């Protein structure tokens, strides 16, 4: 049984708490959060102790950390855990600064501890099946990839102001997915965007609608479409076209019942938000981390992957501002 220190008791921390407790090989040993009331509630729920950062890092009975705290705490906690010899799972991003990410990864590499970055969509059953079929040769050589990601409604402006912007906060998932599916790093990035949904997002210095084009060394291309508002649920689709056909992963709907009548035919909307849509992905992601702890596998999403996703997000922002294509490598 692996004892886990959970950092952060917010929305995503609670998601991971459920999966840590449900897995037969892990249990929550410590909960750490500056909001003491929330920490105590979560600790009581799972039979854990409320600890300080120092207490958790120095506890020899804690084998690993699960970092779900505020973004600006991630890199510091990663470094502390690495120096303490704890295995590390950290929600994306490592940090919003590429320079800070790189200094953090130097510490992790020097420590030799396992490190998994939480890009959960890699573990989604639909997307994983698509990748497996592609790698089996089902559609031959990849030619074009289209990733559509639209939130059901825009986030609060206060969140936008601290999020790092749409490319670092939202598009970064799709940029990682493009690398994951294609199995190669892009050589150029071109991004275009507008503020079409919420004027307050524009006033905060961000955009809410974007299109990103990636070119890969193989000649293949990826097109990423992002919006902060769909109006019909959490729109998550992938289409990969190759020399021998196409693979397509559609939306997961609220239910599979369709209504057919004289007037029209209808089906359910996509599931509303990421907590429902990626429930199975979060479970599979934690199981993968357990496999890493047991020494069965290497982390499928490494610190390098976390760094490269941010490299692409930064390149997209540079492209948008300069209105040109950014070359990489």
From TrEMBL:
GO molecular function annotation: inositol 2-dehydrogenase (NAD+) activity
Alphabetized Gene3D superfamilies for the sequence: Dihydrodipicolinate Reductase, domain 2, NAD(P)-binding Rossmann-like Domain
InterPro entries: Gfo/Idh/MocA-like_OxRdtase_N, GFO_IDH_MocA-like_dom, Myo_inos_IolG, NAD(P)-bd_dom_sf
The GFO/IDH/MocA-like oxidoreductase domain, residue ranges: 127-247
Keywords in alphabetical order: Oxidoreductase
KW Cell membrane (keyword) present: no
Enzyme Commission designation: 1.1.1.18
Domain Gfo/Idh/MocA-like oxidoreductase N-terminal: 2-119
Family: Belongs to the Gfo/Idh/MocA family.
PANTHER family: BINDING ROSSMANN FOLD OXIDOREDUCTASE, PUTATIVE (AFU_ORTHOLOGUE AFUA_2G10240)-RELATED (PTHR42840:SF3), NAD(P)-BINDING ROSSMANN-FOLD SUPERFAMILY PROTEIN-RELATED (PTHR42840)
Protein name: Inositol 2-dehydrogenase
């Amino acid at each position: 049984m692996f004892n886990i220190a959970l950092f952060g008791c917010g929305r995503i921390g609670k998601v991971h708490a459920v999966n840590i407790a449900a897995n037969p090989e892990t249990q929550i040993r410590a909960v750490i959060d500056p909001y003491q009331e929330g920490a105590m509630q979560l600790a009581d729920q799972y039979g854990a102790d409320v600890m300080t950062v120092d207490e958790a890092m120095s506890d020899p009975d804690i084998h690993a950390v699960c970092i779900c705290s505020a973004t600006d705490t991630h890199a510091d906690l990663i470094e502390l855990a690495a120096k303490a010899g704890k295995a590390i799972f950290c929600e994306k991003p490592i940090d919003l600064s590429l320079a800070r990410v790189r200094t953090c990864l130097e510490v992790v590499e020097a420590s030799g501890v396992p490190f998994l970055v939480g890009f959960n969509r890699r573990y989604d059953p639909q997307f994983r099946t698509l990748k497996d079929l592609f790698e089996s040769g089902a559609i031959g050589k990849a030619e074009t990839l289209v990733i559509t990601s639209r939130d059901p409604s825009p986030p609060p402006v206060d969140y936008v102001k601290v999020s790092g912007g749409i490319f670092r906060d939202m598009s970064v998932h799709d940029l990682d997915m493009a690398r994951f599916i294609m199995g190669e790093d892009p050589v150029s990035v071109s991004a275009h965007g507008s503020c079409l949904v919420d004027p307050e997002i524009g006033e905060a210095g961000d955009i809410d609608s974007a299109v990103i084009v990636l070119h890969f060394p193989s000649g293949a291309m990826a097109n990423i479409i992002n919006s902060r508002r769909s109006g019909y649920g959490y729109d998550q689709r992938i289409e990969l076209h190759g020399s021998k056909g196409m693979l397509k992963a559609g939306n997961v709907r609220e239910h599979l019942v369709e209504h057919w009548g004289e007037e029209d035919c209808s089906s359910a909307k996509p599931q509303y938000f990421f907590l429902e849509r990626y429930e199975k992905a979060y479970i599979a992601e934690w199981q993968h981390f357990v496999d890493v702890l047991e020494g069965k596998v290497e982390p499928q999403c490494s610190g390098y992957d976390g760094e490269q996703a941010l490299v692409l997000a930064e390149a997209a922002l540079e492209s948008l501002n300069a209105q040109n294509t950014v070359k990489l490598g």
